[in-house]
Task: inverse folding
């Protein structure tokens, strides 16, 4: 069963504590991470993949050289849920410890 979608107010409150994250026009959480090199970006993706698998909630992401673009939405719920804000928090934490 899908998680309950967050209200607009709940999403805005979550964004206040999610450094670097924003809301796209199509209703996804969005962040771009920048690294010094491709290896740093790929290493981050590898560490993040381990955490992502633990929660079984997979992002839409793309990597070009030293940049990683991440978008989060719970497709089963057709919106943003606590799964998305939780994963955004995990990714920010990993980025802060690199």
Result:
């Amino acid at each position: 069963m899908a998680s309950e979608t967050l209200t607009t107010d709940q999403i805005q409150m979550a964004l206040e504590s999610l450094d670097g994250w924003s809301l796209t026009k199509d209703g996804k959480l969005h962040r771009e991470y920048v690294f010094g090199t491709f290896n740093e970006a790929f290493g981050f993706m590898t560490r993040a993949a381990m955490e992502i698998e633990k929660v079984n909630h997979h992002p839409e992401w793309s990597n070009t050289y030293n940049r990683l673009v991440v978008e989060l939405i719970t497709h089963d719920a057709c919106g943003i849920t606590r799964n998305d804000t939780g994963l955004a928090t995990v990714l920010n934490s990993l980025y802060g410890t690199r």
Q: What stands out?
A: Residues 20 and 31 are 6 Å apart (CA to CA). Helices lie at 8-17, 38-55, 82-96. The radius of gyration is 13 Å.
